[in-house]
């Protein structure tokens, strides 16, 4: 039995549609909305995006995240090819490294600072090599005087999604591996 439906397909790409899609497909796209790349967005918006993603991680970890001023400058200056998703991935990986450092410190001293450190040392080499533009430097110099660089886990966040549970599984994976490596008596420096 034939059935008829009306549907709308919404997609996103960082590729140039003119170069990537056949003409027959492009003719059927009624509207194209261009979103500026991350590097072209205002500094304030890039800060807000960074803090939003850091807030998500603080909520998952149930721990505050202390952001170093230099790491914030690098995040805000980051020129990503994959746009916002790349920034989010970078923040998640840096938080995972910070969490591992936190757990190692906890094991070594049976105590640890009451927060996860988000420092430029935990950022990828690609971001560590980012040049900080003067406009970012000026904006953040005045911004830091008015704002805290500690992201508390109780900030408001959107409802939990499947993606959130995947990130939570990352921290569970770190916990499991850390326990396994400790049973094998590996040095915390080797684990990191």
Explain how this protein is built:
- The chain has 192 residues and is mainly α.
- Helix content is 55%, strand content 4%.
- The protein contains nine helices and three strands; from the N terminus they run αααβααβααβαα.
- A three-stranded mixed sheet has the order 2-1-3.
- α3 (43-61) crosses α8 (162-183) and α5 (84-109) runs parallel beside α8.
- The longest helix has 26 residues, at 84-109.
Unreliable stretches: 156-165
Mean pLDDT equals 81
Q: Approximately how much beta-strand content do the residues carry? A: under 5%
How much is the radius of gyration in Å? 21 Å
Overall 3D shape: globular
Give the class from helix and strand content and strand pairing: mainly alpha
SSE pattern, N- to C-terminal = HHHEHHEHHEHH
Chain-wise SSE layout:
Blueprint: H1 17-20, H2 23-26, H3 43-61, E1 65-67, H4 69-77, H5 84-109, E2 116-118, H6 125-128, H7 134-146, E3 150-151, H8 162-183, H9 188-191
Parallel strand pairs: 1-2
Antiparallel strand pairs: 1-3
Helix pairs in contact: 3-4, 3-5, 3-8, 4-7, 5-8
For the structure shown, list the relevant keywords.
3-stranded mixed β-sheet; single chain; 192 residues; mainly alpha; 4% strand
In short:
The protein has 192 residues and is mainly α.
């Amino acid at each position: 039995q034939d059935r008829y439906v009306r549907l709308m397909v919404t997609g996103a790409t960082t590729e140039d549609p003119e170069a990537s899609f056949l003409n027959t497909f492009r003719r059927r796209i009624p509207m194209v909305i261009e979103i500026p790349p991350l590097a072209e967005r205002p500094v304030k918006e890039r800060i807000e995006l960074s803090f939003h993603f850091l807030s998500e991680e603080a909520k998952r970890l149930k721990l505050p995240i202390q952001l170093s001023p230099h790491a914030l400058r690098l995040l805000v200056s980051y020129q990503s090819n994959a746009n916002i998703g790349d920034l989010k991935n970078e923040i998640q990986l840096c938080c995972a490294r910070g969490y591992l450092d936190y757990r190692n410190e906890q094991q070594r001293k049976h105590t640890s600072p009451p927060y996860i450190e988000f420092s430029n040392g935990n950022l990828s080499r690609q971001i560590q090599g980012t040049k900080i533009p003067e406009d970012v430097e000026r904006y953040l110099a005045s911004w830091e005087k008015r704002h805290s660089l500690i992201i508390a886990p109780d900030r408001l966040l959107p409802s939990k999604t499947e993606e959130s549970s995947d990130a939570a599984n990352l921290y569970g994976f770190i916990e499991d591996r850390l326990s396994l490596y400790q049973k094998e008596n590996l040095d915390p420096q080797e684990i990191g």
